[in-house]
Amino acid sequence: MLAAIWAQDQNGLIGKNEVLPWYLPDDLKFFKEMTLGKTLVMGRKTFEGMGGRPLPGRRTIILTRNENYQAPVGVLAMNDIKQVIAYAKASDHTVFIAGGGAIYATLLPACDYIFRTVIEDSFEGDTYFPEVKWESWRLVKKVAGKVDEKNKFPHSFEEYERIHLD
């Protein structure tokens, strides 16, 4: 199964210079809980923006057009979305699309689920989530995140499933 996971501000902003433009520990905890033991698919720039090393306890796939890209040890490199989709279909666990914008735009049509954190604030950045055809999705769950001294921005966690019209 293929799912997209991301955090965005109220305007759809998801990044600034290949990193998150905010610090929200509650969302980082949610991301870890959702993806631990699973596979993450991301573009090369997103991977390098996270320090160029895989996150602990997760398999990482870098989707890149560079056929000569040398992935770090323990990281898979794929050059074709068909490879990613086939991997996800053959996998016994959820494969999460984790950025950046171009990777989301390319793979969202193949996703069955969306896990989106919406931050009720505006930030400065350069990358927005691509347009989503929300009529193809059904909201399954929405949970308010905690706001405290560490989590200064109101936010909510949303889960959507694709509507399959037969």
UniProtKB/TrEMBL annotation:
<protein>
    <recommendedName>
        <fullName>Dihydrofolate reductase</fullName>
        <ecNumber>1.5.1.3</ecNumber>
    </recommendedName>
</protein>
<dbReference type="Pfam" id="PF00186">
    <property type="entry name" value="DHFR_1"/>
</dbReference>
<keyword id="KW-0560">Oxidoreductase</keyword>
<feature type="domain" description="DHFR">
    <location>
        <begin position="1"/>
        <end position="162"/>
    </location>
</feature>
<dbReference type="InterPro" id="IPR017925">
    <property type="entry name" value="DHFR_CS"/>
</dbReference>
<keyword id="KW-0521">NADP</keyword>
<keyword id="KW-0554">One-carbon metabolism</keyword>
<dbReference type="InterPro" id="IPR024072">
    <property type="entry name" value="DHFR-like_dom_sf"/>
</dbReference>
<dbReference type="InterPro" id="IPR012259">
    <property type="entry name" value="DHFR"/>
</dbReference>
<comment type="similarity">
    <text>Belongs to the dihydrofolate reductase family.</text>
</comment>
<dbReference type="InterPro" id="IPR001796">
    <property type="entry name" value="DHFR_dom"/>
</dbReference>
<comment type="pathway">
    <text>Cofactor biosynthesis; tetrahydrofolate biosynthesis; 5,6,7,8-tetrahydrofolate from 7,8-dihydrofolate: step 1/1.</text>
</comment>
<comment type="function">
    <text>Key enzyme in folate metabolism. Catalyzes an essential reaction for de novo glycine and purine synthesis, and for DNA precursor synthesis.</text>
</comment>
